Amino acid sequence: MVNSPLNSCIILQSRYCPKTYTPASKGISHGAIQRQTTISVEIELAGKSSKLTLREWLAQHGRNESIHYKEIAEALARDPASVSASLSIEWKQAQEDNRPAYFVRTGPGLYQYNDLCEGAVDEELISEVRARAADFNRATRREMRNEIAKLSLEGFEDLAKIALLNIRARIEEAEVVHRYNGIVVLVTSWRDDGGSSPVVVYVKKCGFDEKIGVDLISEIRGSLPKYQANQGVLITNGTVTSEGIQEALGYRTKNVKALVPPVHLLDINILLNILIESRTGVRTKGVEVLLLDTDFFKRLRHSE
After folding, report:
1. Do 67 and 163 have their domain in common?
2. Which are the contacts of 234, defined by CB distance < 8 A and separation ≥ 6?
3. Radius of gyration of the chain (CA)
């Protein structure tokens, strides 16, 4: 199976990492430069000795703005993959424990500190708020699905290109090679492989709840040699059937898998996930929840 960068995110420029400066004028003395270097080393050593945890650093820097995980990794002198893994583990653990995670994801690779994780909170109230938020989010997904179904083929093609941008495709180099029967065929490549391997993308506009079966998946795979591509992508607002999914994965029978080029599926559910995670086509609303500070009143009672 050829790996594709479907979970990669756009890297933002670092804002929190210390930078090295060189003197702009030759008039600065050697002693001044040496003192400046000494101060810089002391600051660097002090930063290393503090060894802030990921949560502590995000609490200090990420309360009022979103920060890319690669910026966090550089500031903490950690590997970006390690920071990404830590955030994923925290998110899964918070879901299992039915508690707020110490961060919220605000966009591709962007994280902000979650104040709800602090202090003594009424877990029953938080659970109720989260349940209602989940109801709103499900309703928004249904509305998005309806709006996408109303798009023209041209509008859906533009939406597909936005999705491709979010999965690290070189959309600026994408070339339309064919249009027919409500389908647009593009040839592009992934950013992370240097553009060395062409990727064939089929953009298929469907009616609401239309099903996509084996035939289109087979057609996509059959077109790959023509463009010297080793993988294909289907972007559609339809739903791929279970047989279509098996064909995309390369299964000839239930238990027999062939060595064939992969076809990545971005049907309506995956497409909605990409759009929502990148905050495309949706807006977020912050809700202030007031919780009783029981410790405050306990201190007042003890002072009597």
Report:
1. no
2. 201, 202, 204, 212, 216, 217, 220, 240, 248, 263, 264, 265, 266, 267
3. 25
pLDDT band for 269, please (50, 70, 90 cuts). Answer: very high
Most confidently modeled range among 119-123, 183-187, 274-278: 183-187
Rounded mean pLDDT, 244-257:
82
Q: Residue 273 corresponds to which tokens in the numbers above?
A: 């996930």
Q: What is the pLDDT of residue 9?
A: 33
Q: 71 or 122: which carries more pLDDT confidence?
A: 71
**Backbone φ, ψ for residue 224 (5° rounding):** -60, -45
Q: Looking at the domain assignment, is residue 26 inside a domain?
A: no
Band of the pLDDT at 37, cuts 50, 70, 90? very low
Summarize the confidence of residues 85-107 as an average pLDDT: 85
How far apart CA 89 and CA 87 sit, in angstroms, is 5
CA–CA separation, 92 and 171 (whole Å): 32
Domain, as residue range, for 256: 148-277
- 112 near 104, Cβ under 8 Å? yes
Q: Which of 162, 168, 195 is nearest to 5 (CA)?
A: 168
**Contact between 239 and 226 (Cβ < 8 Å):** no
Q: Does 4 fall in a domain?
A: no
Give one DSSP letter per residue of 87-129, joined into a string. Answer: HHHHHHHHHHHTS--SEEEEETTEEEE-GGGSS---HHHHHHH
**Does residue 185 sit in the same domain as residue 75?**
no
* Both tokens assigned to 214: 């084996």
CATH of the domain at 104: 1.10.10
Task: Please give the tally of structural domains in the chain.
Answer: 2
